[in-house]
Design brief:
Blueprint: H1 15-25, H2 56-71, H3 77-91, H4 94-106, H5 111-118, H6 128-143, H7 148-183
Helix pairs in contact: 1-2, 2-7, 3-4, 3-6, 3-7, 6-7
Organism: Streptomyces cylindrosporus
Pfam family, one: CMD
Domain Carboxymuconolactone decarboxylase-like: 57-138
């Protein structure tokens, strides 16, 4: 499915939209080596960022949450990128997967780890704190909640701040995946329909 929302060129933006554009394309995301491009060759924002220009007040706030999650969190770079890829797998978001696999490689994620995350699994990390964060992320994407044990384990590993930032990460990247579906035309891969097993002719279950 093609994008529903046309990309806007920098010269087509009004003053408030330009503020959002500069915050995204000229902020922390644009500093240092670029693992993936934020804009196309003509300057149109890519992926979920283009839609943020539709409502500058909301778009500016949303991009600020994303910048805080990526650059001001107590979560390690590896945990952050693995958690994002867990969300990408849950939503089957090709853009998030492509972008954050590229970032993940710069953070030391191995190809076997990326393969596992791409398939919806969790890598067998040697770091107990990493395993705890990924189990919590998987639970949040699967059920939208944590058990008491998952809550206690994650707080023990990352503190209440870390858990808050992890839940914010899950919510933020789920929001981006939703916006990608609505505005960029990104659709999940079709999966075969599983038909329930019919009851036996004897009537027993």
């Amino acid at each position: 499915m093609s994008a529903r929302l046309a990309g806007l060129l920098p010269g087509e933006l009004n003053e408030r939209q330009t503020e959002v554009y500069r915050a995204i394309a000229g902020g922390r995301r644009a500093s240092g080596p670029q693992a993936f491009s934020l804009a196309d060759e003509e300057g149109r924002l890519r992926g979920p960022f283009n839609a943020m220009l539709l409502s500058p007040p909301v778009g500016l706030a949303v991009q600020a949450v994303g910048a805080a999650v990526r650059y001001e969190s107590v979560l390690t770079d590896r945990v952050r990128e693995m958690a994002i890829l867990v969300v990408a797998a849950a939503w089957d978001s090709a853009f998030e997967r492509e972008a954050h696999e590229a970032v993940g490689r710069t953070c030391g994620l191995t190809e076997p780890e990326l393969d596992t995350l791409r398939e919806g699994g969790l890598p067998e990390s040697a770091d107990p704190a990493e395993r705890t964060a990924l189990r919590a992320t998987a639970a949040l994407t699967r059920t939208g909640a944590l058990s008491d044990q998952e809550y206690d384990d994650t707080v023990a590993a990352w503190g209440e701040r870390g858990l808050f930032e992890l839940t914010t990460l899950v919510g933020y990247y789920s929001l981006l995946a939703l916006q990608l579906r609505v505005f960029a035309g990104e659709q999940p891969a079709e999966r075969p329909v599983e038909h329930p097993t019919p009851p036996s002719e004897s009537g027993t279950s």
